[in-house]
Automatic annotation (TrEMBL):
<dbReference type="InterPro" id="IPR012349">
    <property type="entry name" value="Split_barrel_FMN-bd"/>
</dbReference>
<dbReference type="InterPro" id="IPR050268">
    <property type="entry name" value="NADH-dep_flavin_reductase"/>
</dbReference>
<feature type="domain" description="Flavin reductase like">
    <location>
        <begin position="19"/>
        <end position="162"/>
    </location>
</feature>
<protein>
    <submittedName>
        <fullName>Flavin reductase</fullName>
    </submittedName>
</protein>
<dbReference type="InterPro" id="IPR002563">
    <property type="entry name" value="Flavin_Rdtase-like_dom"/>
</dbReference>
<keyword id="KW-0560">Oxidoreductase</keyword>
<dbReference type="Pfam" id="PF01613">
    <property type="entry name" value="Flavin_Reduct"/>
</dbReference>
Length: 332
């Protein structure tokens, strides 16, 4: 594409559509007016401006119903919505009389109303307001910020999207390692194992990650190659080194329809597990822990990477689990 020349020829609607190609997160920015009435709107113009001092910016449309409140406030709050909060994104993008009715929230300082369960949150005081075209840029000095546990909601091309199923789950900074995908497929308390016909050993279905336009696509293709049908992954359960050069990322799945069982692809209950014929000690650890944890339906991620060969529980929650109001706080 040629470098842009002059802006007057740019159709505003087309400009908006073109900008929509730039993926963003989604925030709800809130404040109170002089009468104490709360105001809030969905905004994806949120961006960081400066690290020291910590500054962020948002652009508020002059036509927005809450414009007057944001043009006079001294404090405001920004909640970065979690992937399960699409309903709030829509609600706060709709001109309603009572946007906050029934919405779980906390208010750290008057005007900085934060929505519970958000992926991240900021309490800001107004640093500067800049008149820019049909918007006003609100620059906020960050007084406090906090991290939630939810994955953030994304927005691109006018649609919301979720990141948690579509990202490489764990990064491996060791060059030259091949990432394999393993499947912990559960059905009625049984786990699907596949047998290596050459050695007779059993293991979770494991194979190289297939191609795909997104990580979710690649995972689905991999499941098809390994088990003859597409299986939707639920979450990453474990990452283990299974050889000198291969690391396996294991996903838990509970498909409605099971892959066709054969002599070499079978479901095993805990008591029938071929423990002594498992291909790798990490497979045994994963399976033993899984059977333990599924009783409470609370899972951690297990890592067994590198020379130490240690299996460590790093988080006793479902990855990306949404926990209303639970923030990991980092005040500036
Ligand atoms: C994903 C998304 C992002 C938005 N981002 C902004 C924004 O950054 N600034 C803005 O003024 N409006 C933005 N809007 C539109 C406002 O949310 C919308 O106009 C809303 O009705 C404003 O609420 P109000 O009229 O009650 O103030 C966005 C809407 C959506 C769906």
């Amino acid at each position: 594409m040629d470098a842009p020349t002059g802006s007057t020829r740019v159709d505003p609607l087309f400009f908006r559509r073109t900008m929509g190609r730039f993926p963003t997160g989604v925030t709800v920015v809130t404040t109170r007016d002089a009468t104490g009435r709360p105001w809030g709107m969905t905004a994806n113009s949120f961006t960081s401006v400066s690290l020291a001092p910590p500054l962020i910016s948002l652009c508020i449309d002059r036509k927005a119903g809450s414009f007057s409140a944001f043009s006079q406030c001294s404090t405001f709050g920004v909640s970065v919505l979690g992937e399960n909060q699409q309903d709030l994104a829509v609600r706060f993008a709709t001109p309603l009389d009572d946007k906050f009715g029934g919405v779980a929230k906390v208010e750290e300082r008057p005007g900085a109303i934060l929505l519970s369960g958000a992926a991240a949150a900021f309490v800001c005081t107004v640093h500067t307001r800049v008149d820019l075209g049909d918007h006003v840029m609100l620059i906020g000095a960050v007084e406090e910020c906090s991290l939630g546990r939810s994955a953030p909601l994304g927005y691109c091309d006018g649609s919301f999207f979720s990141l948690s199923g579509g990202e490489t789950p764990l990064e491996d900074d060791r060059p030259g390692r091949q990432i394999l995908v393993g499947w912990l497929v559960e059905h009625e308390a049984k786990i699907l194992l596949s047998r290596d016909t050459a050695t007779g050993e059993w293991r979770l279905p494991v194979g190289p990650l297939q191609g795909g336009s997104t990580m979710s696509d690649a995972l689905r293709s991999t499941s098809h190659v390994l088990m003859g049908q597409v299986i939707e992954p639920e979450f990453l359960y474990s990452a283990i080194d299974i050889s000198e050069s291969e690391t396996c990322h294991v996903y838990r799945a509970r498909p409605g329809v099971l892959p066709r069982q054969t002599a070499d692809l079978r479901l095993f209950a805990e008591e029938d597990m071929p423990w002594r014929e498992l291909s790798h000690s990490s497979m045994e650890s994963i399976l033993r822990r899984y059977f333990e944890e599924r009783v409470s339906d609370r899972f951690g991620i297990y890592l067994n990477l590198g020379a130490a060969g240690r299996i460590a529980q790093i988080e006793h929650e479902v990855p990306w689990a949404d926990h209303a109001g639970n923030y990991e706080r980092s005040a500036s």
